[in-house]
Design goal:
Structural class: alpha/beta
Low-confidence stretches: none
Strand content: 15-25%
Helix content: 25-40%
Shape: globular
Distance between the termini: 14 Å
Subunit structure: Homodimer.
Radius of gyration: 21 Å
Order of helices and strands: EEEEEHEEHHEHHHEEEHHHHHEHHHEEH
Strand order of the largest sheet: 5-4-3-2-1-6-8-7
Protein name: Acetate kinase
GO cellular component, one term: cytoplasm
Largest sheet: 8 strands, mixed
GO molecular function, one term: ATP binding
Mean pLDDT: 94
Cofactor: Mg(2+); Mn(2+)
Number of strands: 14
């Protein structure tokens, strides 16, 4: 079966067409600047040339149409018509407590996702637009929703509750939900495969480190804690997000700077993180270059970031009463050996030793700790699209 995986943002749409017989990517690409001047579609068939086509995309429906036109193009396309596509898998960010697993999308599911919009106002509405666009163009093709929050629904009450009046949980479901669940699930399972160990016997810490970043504790195949909370703002310092802060800081800065709550939230979401600490950039690639050049602003930001990750690893080692494997994934986690080295420098108490030759590699599943290391340290490239496609296939085949 061929499955189309769709990941909609507010002004972008990533897509992959995957042949589930081989789990190989047939074609992939990106629609950018939807609803904005200068919109374009990037398309690349497997083994073929990447093409970039600039064309107006006023809506996500138009973007989906352009994706289908690219996939079925007589010269460069990979399918004759859309009947060859057996299902569509959609990444959905927030499912609240309603969804502990992936699900076939119907009217009831759409309504339930809409009810979670206020918990993810930047993501859920865009995800729903992508679903509606696909349903309009492919009305007879089954659609599956795969939720970022679902993997973390196994967290125990002591991990997901906040120290707030319990009535806020009963009335509004204010609690920790966590995100990047598709990535944390895929990486923890893949780590078990690489190590040749049963998934349900391992204690694994997954560090999904990118512009958005989170850490999770996966014990015996279940997420028992994760760093992001009610929203993706909590947890690690990220590209532009503050991560954990003393809540009273908000009132203090609002009074000093004469900000309202919307302006303050904009600071925390878009002007903080390594961008705010470095006063340079939110792009970790640029930070790495400056870090290696001895720029003190970049060094400060990278040190703060690495320290925060190491703290969460220590906390989750305690939460699971031990750890067997620590996995690095996502753009920064997979590609920046200096960050991995700086984080692991804090973890000598766990008996961790890095193999620097292995740590210098990238782009493949790796064990980067020495054979003598008491805890395995790994780099596992994430593959959220394949994880979504697998979930979609399993549901459609049922």
């Amino acid at each position: 079966m061929k499955i189309l995986v769709i990941n909609c943002g507010s002004s972008s749409l990533k897509y992959q067409l995957i042949d589930m017989d081989t789990e190989g990517v047939i074609a992939k690409g990106l629609c950018e600047r939807i609803g904005i001047d200068g919109s374009r579609i990037v398309y690349q068939p497997a083994g073929g040339e990447k093409t970039v086509t600039e064309s107006p995309m006023p809506t996500h429906t138009q973007a989906i149409k352009m994706v289908i036109e690219a996939l079925t193009n007589p010269e460069t396309g990979v399918v004759k018509n859309m009947d060859e596509i057996g299902a569509v898998g959609h990444r959905l960010v927030h499912g609240g407590e309603k969804f502990a697993c992936s699900t076939i999308i119907d009217d009831e599911v759409i309504k339930a996702v809409e009810e979670c919009n206020e918990l993810a106002p930047l993501h859920n509405p865009a995800n729903l637009i992508g679903i509606a666009a696909c349903q309009e163009i492919m009305p007879n093709t089954p659609m599956v929703g795969v939720f970022d929050t679902a993997f973390h629904q196994t967290m125990p009450e002591e991990a997901y509750l906040y120290g707030l009046p319990y009535e806020y949980y009963k009335k509004y479901k204010v609690r920790r939900y966590g995100f990047h669940g598709t990535s944390h699930s895929y990486v923890s399972k893949r780590a078990a495969e690489v190590l040749g160990q049963p998934y349900d016997s391992l204690k694994t810490i997954v560090c999904h480190l990118g512009n958005g970043a989170s850490v999770s504790a996966v014990k015996n195949g279940k997420s028992v804690d994760t760093s992001m909370g009610l929203t993706p703002l909590e947890g690690l310092i990220m590209g532009t997000r503050s991560g954990d802060i003393d809540p009273a800081i908000m009132e203090f800065i609002m009074k000093k700077e004469n900000l309202d709550i919307d302006e303050m939230m904009n600071v925390l979401n878009k002007k903080s993180g390594v961008l705010g600490v470095s006063e340079m950039t939110s792009d970790f690639r640029d930070l790495e270059d400056a870090y290696l050049a001895g720029n003190q602003d970049a060094i400060r930001a990278m040190k703060v970031f690495a320290y925060r990750v190491a703290k969460y690893i220590g906390a989750y080692t305690a939460a699971m009463n031990g750890v067997d494997a620590i996995c690095f994934t996502a753009g920064l986690g997979e590609n920046n050996r200096y960050v991995r080295n700086d984080i692991c420098a804090y973890l000598g108490y766990l008996g961790i030793e890095l193999d620097q030759e292995q740590n210098a590699k990238r782009g493949e599943d790796l064990v980067i700790s020495t054979p003598e290391s008491k805890v395995k340290v790994m780099v596992i490239p994430t593959n959220e699209e394949l994880a979504i496609a697998r979930e979609t296939l399993a549901l459609v085949q049922k």
